[in-house]
Amino acid sequence: MVSIKSDREIELMKIAGHINYLCHKYLETKLKPGITTKEIDDLAGKFIEEHGCISSSKGYEGYPNNICISVNDEVVHGIGSDRVLEDGDIVSLDICMSYKGYHSDSAATYPVGTISKRDQELLDNTKGALMAGLAEVKAGAKLGTVSHAIETYAHEHGLSVVEELCGHGIGTELHEDPDVPNFGKEGTGLTLKAGMTLAIEPMLNLGTKHVYLLDDDWTVITADGENSAHFEHTVLVLDDGYEILTGE
Ligand code: MF3
Ligand code: CO
User: Fold this and answer.
1) Is the CB of residue 230 below 6 angstroms from any atom belonging to ligand 1?
2) Facing residues of 168 across strands?
3) Is 212 in the pocket of ligand 1 (CB under 6 A)?
């Protein structure tokens, strides 16, 4: 069932979304060569707690850490460790938290030091694909049109779309109905209504779309070892568009 949020629920999601945004801004300043991904996770855990929120990732189906940190060819769900970030890496931070029982979910991929032009384009175009999808979000629009816009933008920019993972409804649960795939057919699927809240999250690859799971049972990596990027916002569907709850 796809829920419509009340004004009060939306207020709580806006708080969870704003603190998520602030957490991204804070962690971005820490992404320098030499820091370990576990150190980033620890900083995230402290930030989330100090701001009155609870990590939605920690303990989610047994996930061990505060946030997901995925480096280079890691697509999503990487687990912070003693891995040291190096100049030229790209690192995806996927942050999920709740405030008074309402969740926010936002991801972005950041450069560490100086990255290649190809990787910078991967970052820019994955964010572009997210924004192209969001541009289709409004009451009355079909979900397939949003998915199609993401897929089309990705392909026009020479990137492949990871198909095994998708966006989702969000609210009192981190993952609610509907699924929001990053590929699809225009004019098909669910009709969006004002008051729905969605986490939209393209995961795009430089090389093959195929991915596999490492034997930690969490980390998803590209099958060909090429880099991957992930951008995600939690958004509220409006009559005439959308509002990003995890932005400025
Ligand atoms: N942000 C991820 C998603 O929407 C969820 C992370 S849950 C975790 O799929 F357990 F992997 F952390
Ligand atoms: Co998500």
Assistant:
1) no
2) 179, 199
3) no
